[in-house]
Amino acid sequence: METENNTVVTEFILVGLTQSQSIQLLVFVLVLIFYLIILPGNFFIILTIRSDPGLTAPLYFFLGNLAFLDASYSFIVAPRMLADFFSEKKVISYNSCITQLFFLHFLGAGEGFLLVVMAFDRYIAICRPLYYSTVMNPRACHVLLLAPWIGGFVHSIIQVALILRLPFCGPNLLDNFLCDVPQVIKLACTDTFVVELLMVFNSGLLTLLCLLGLLVSYAVILCRVRGSSSEGKSKAMSTCTTHIIVIFLMFGPGIFIYSRPFRALPADKVVSFCHTVIFPLLNPVIYTLRNQEIKASVRKLFYQHLA
């Protein structure tokens, strides 16, 4: 059946992460463990931040939203991936594929922009402490939180609009376990050089610029706290180190996937798996494990309601 954009492919067949049954079983168990342990942990972090009156600073407001974004992001790929382990033929419809691709980039870009907002918050808190309460007032925090959602939507809708213009007339075999830009574009029945270039600018270059900007901002912060008191320096160093770890987990795989020509490499599936399934669930946990205030609040909440 042909549509207005000459699409005759109505479904795609996913190759999956691996053809090895033993590796598939190992991955299934690993993902299931992450879902049963770390995903509830993310929601517990959100509950802790919302229920503790002592965690009202903008940092915790943004961290709670990061945990929500990461938890939402993890629902895009992993549930279907778990279900596909039991399917001999992994089929996804054209519309479902485009929907998955949209939310993958919508929430992924939103998280990246939120990390930029969190870096701005830390810069004001450490480098301009006298202006912090004025600049980071509740109204400003809500406006800053809205920016990642709008930015993620604009970024993703551009990706989808470019793909919807492409004709797909076969083959329909996607060499991955999810629908993502590099694999879908290669199945188009036309020359995709211009579209690939636009995608690299929209995703790869944007991701690279965000990473470099964040690293420069944290370098400035670390240079600024060198002369601070021992306690203030230690706290700032811990916070910045945590943010930098999450930044590399978030932007490193994104740069590998989207900032180069869309040619298949042996590491593509592993990087995509870490980027879409493992790292999103780990990011808020990393923040929590290195933040004394949140750890204390988590323990208090646990003993109040569960112990």
Automatic annotation (TrEMBL):
Q: Which residues form the G-protein coupled receptors family 1 profile domain?
A: 41-287
Membrane-protein topology? Multi-pass membrane protein
InterPro entries named among the record's database cross-references? GPCR_Rhodpsn, GPCR_Rhodpsn_7TM, Olfact_rcpt, Olfactory_Receptors
Q: Can you tell which superkingdom this protein's organism belongs to? A: Eukaryota
* GO CC term (a single one): plasma membrane
The record's keywords, sorted A to Z, are: Cell membrane, G-protein coupled receptor, Membrane, Olfaction, Receptor, Sensory transduction, Transducer, Transmembrane, Transmembrane helix
Q: Name one Pfam family in it.
A: 7tm_4
Q: Give an example GO molecular function.
A: olfactory receptor activity
The keyword NAD appears for this protein: no
Where found, per UniProt? Cell membrane; Membrane
**SUPFAM superfamilies in alphabetical order:** Family A G protein-coupled receptor-like
Which residue windows are transmembrane per the record? Answer: 23-47, 59-78, 98-120, 141-164, 205-225, 237-258, 270-289
Task performed by this protein: Putative odorant or sperm cell receptor.
The record's listing under PANTHER family reads: OLFACTORY RECEPTOR
Q: What family is reported?
A: Belongs to the G-protein coupled receptor 1 family.
Q: What is this protein called?
A: Olfactory receptor
Give the organism the record lists.
Camelus ferus
Which gene name belongs to this protein?
A: LOC102516991
